Amino acid sequence: MPSDQPRYAISFTPAPHEALGIVGANWIGRNAYSGQSIEPPMIGGMSLSEIAFHTALPRRYGFQGMLKSPFHLAEGASEALLLNALMRFATGWKPFFLPPLKVVRRRDSLAFAPAIAVPALDELAAAVVSEFDPFRAPLSEAELERRDTGALSPVQFANLHRWGEPDVMSAFAFHMPLTGPLQPRDMERMERAALEFFGPILAEPVEFENIALFVEEEPGAPFCVHSLHPMGALPARRIA
């Protein structure tokens, strides 16, 4: 697979007009719909450069919770076929609400995650992984080695070799990254900053009514929302 080909990811991200999406874009410093950079937030006790440094990784990927991690298209697949399949897929799933989100420590990073388990979300994520696996180009041996950190559980190892990613199916845990890797000394300060910045928004339920297709046009480029696919019987909305 040529390395200069686009990569795609299937994810959840709030609609552009929703408060969580607006504040999330402000936190990471980029709007994934427009691609526009946003100046990092002012948070007491932290410099703008410090916030920008710690949010660099989610800024590249956009404010999203991935259901299917980035993949190149398999031989014989095309963007048009992927879009048609995603549109049809989305119409077969009813929208639902996520419980209020909370800031969690995920490995060495911070992320949003639902306060309680959401079976409908787990079911949807598993279906996305399996339904769209035929569109995914197989990983090379080098990619497999890079993703096998040596710390994978047997289930994660099996997932990596079957689905191209370890944290899927029974190992899936929905989350929306807020930071990249943090040093232990920075974890508590960033956690306080996130709680302060998002504030009352965390108490609001989140409607999961769209499935988003993200695209990385070339290696190293930021991921942007390509299209939103409403769950139900509405057509996909291309994001200009």
UniProtKB/TrEMBL annotation:
<protein>
    <submittedName>
        <fullName>DUF1045 domain-containing protein</fullName>
    </submittedName>
</protein>
<dbReference type="Pfam" id="PF06299">
    <property type="entry name" value="DUF1045"/>
</dbReference>
<dbReference type="InterPro" id="IPR009389">
    <property type="entry name" value="DUF1045"/>
</dbReference>
